[in-house]
Amino acid sequence: MRNACIFLIFLGAFALFTSCDKKRVYDEYQPITGGWEKDSSLVFNLGELDSLQTYNLFINLRNNKDYKYSNLFLITEMRFPQGKVVTDTLEYEMAAPDGTWLGTGFGDVKESKLWYKENVSFTEPGEYKIAIKQAMRKNDEVEGIENLEGITHVGFRIEKDLQ
C-alpha cells in the first residue's frame, strides 16, 4: 500500500511538471565548455514541424559571472529543407545599466529566454535547422572576440502560438 501511495505521488508530481509546458514543441540546450569560439556554430536540428501551426521561436542562454559584457551579438541561420538560408544578426541586452543581469536564476548562473521570431509557419516539408554563432567584438576593434567566456549553454526553443 505504501509503495502505491509513493508511486501515485511521484506520478502526480511528474504530471504537474510536464503539463505546465503545453506550448513547448522543441527545447534543447548545448553546453559551451572553455568559452564560445568565434567560428563555432551550434546547430539545432528541429525535425519536421506542423505546417498548419504557427510558432514562436526563442534563443535560450545561460551565462555566469565570467561574462564581461552587457549585451550579446549573435548570427543565426535558419536552414530550410529545400536549401534556402535566412541569416539574421541579433543583439540582446544581457544586463541592466547598473550591471544587474537580466536573466533569471539564483547564484552565479542566469538564464535568459530571448525572442528570435514570432508567428512563424514552417511550410516546406522536411527538416529545418538553426545555426547560432557568437559575433562579439570589443569597441573600436574589427576582429571578433576569439573565445567568448561566460556563456555556459545555448538553447533553442519552439512554442506553439496559441492565440
The first-to-last residue Cα distance is 45 Å
Q: Looking at the structure, what is the overall shape?
A: globular
Structural class: mainly beta
As laid out across the biggest beta sheet, the strand order is 1-10-4-7
Name the CATH class: Mainly Beta
Number of β-strand runs = 10
* Tally of structural domains: 1
Largest sheet: 4 strands, antiparallel
SS strand fraction: over 45%
Task: List key phrases describing it.
mainly beta; Jelly Rolls; four-stranded antiparallel sheet; 1 helix; 10 strands; 46% strand; globular
Helix-strand layout with pairing:
Layout: H1 2-19, E1 24-31, E2 36-37, E3 42-47, E4 54-63, E5 71-79, E6 85-93, E7 110-121, E8 128-134, E9 147-148, E10 151-160
